[in-house]
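Quick question, first post here. What does this chain look like in 3D?
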Amino acid sequence: MPAINDSERSLAVFVDLENLALGFQHQKKGQFQINKVLERLVEKGKLIVKKAYADWSRFPEYTKPFHEAAIELIEIPVRAMTGKNSADIRMVVDAMDLAWSKAHIDTFAIVSGDSDFSPLVSKLKENGKHVIGIGMRGSTSELLADNCDEFIYYEDLQRQEDEHEVVSQLETTLPEKKREAFALLLDACAALRRENHEVLHASMIKDTMKRKKPSFDESYYGYRSFTHLLEDAAALKIVDVERDARSRSYVVTRFGGRDLPAMVITQPEAAAQTQTSRRPRRRR
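> Answer (accepted):
Ran it through. C-alpha cells below.
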C-alpha cells in the first residue's frame, strides 16, 4: 500500500453529534455547522464515507444540513438501560468494521471531543490508519486530542472561513465568473499550504479545486485549459507561476501575498549535475 503522503487520502468521517451539539448548547455558541468540518477535511483527500450518530428526534435542527451534506444519519434512540453510550458503541463498531473491510480507506476523522473514543483511535492507528480528530476547545479531552495523529479545533475553522471571505473579495473589478474561479484557485492554494505542500503543481491545485467544488470545469469560466486559467491569473498578478524544470508544467510560486519556497526542490536533475561537476576528474 502506498504511503499516505505519496497519494491522495481516502477518508471516512464519523460524527458524534450529541457530544458536539451539547457542547454548543452549554457554551451558547449557536449551532454546530458540519459544512465547516467537511470543507476542511476535503482539503486532506476524498471523503468516501460520512456517518453521523444521534437520537435525531432530539436534534431535529441538524437533520436537514446533515442530509444535504450527504451524510448517512444513524439513528440511535436513547433508552433508559443504555443511555448515550449506545451511540458510542455503534460508532466504534462501524469504524473498526470499516477499517478491516475497506483497506483503501487510510484516514479516519473522528468528530468528537469525548475521551471514550481514545481506545478507538489507538486501535485504528495500530491497524495502520491515520487518525484526525475534530472537536471544540472547551469540551475536548486532552487524552483524545493527544492520541490522534492530528487534531483540529472547531474554533480554528472559523478563522479559516474568515480568510476565505477576504480571498473571495479580491479583484472585485473582475467579471463575476473570473472572480469566482480565482477565489477558488486561491482557496485551493491556501488549502495545499495548510497541508504543508511546499511545491504547488498545477495538477495538485486543480485536483484540490475539484474536491472543493466537484462541478469545477475551467471551460465554464471561459478557459480552454487549466493552463490558460493559471496564465490569466498570473497576468493579473493574482498568482506567480514558473515552469517546472522536469515536467515543464506550471508551479505556483506566490499567491495572496505569500511567497513559497524556491524552485530548487523541483529541479533534482540540476542539483545532481552541480554535484557531478564538482567532482575532480580522474587523470588518464
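Confidence is low (pLDDT under 50) at residues 1-6, 262-284.
The chain is about 45% helix and 20% strand.
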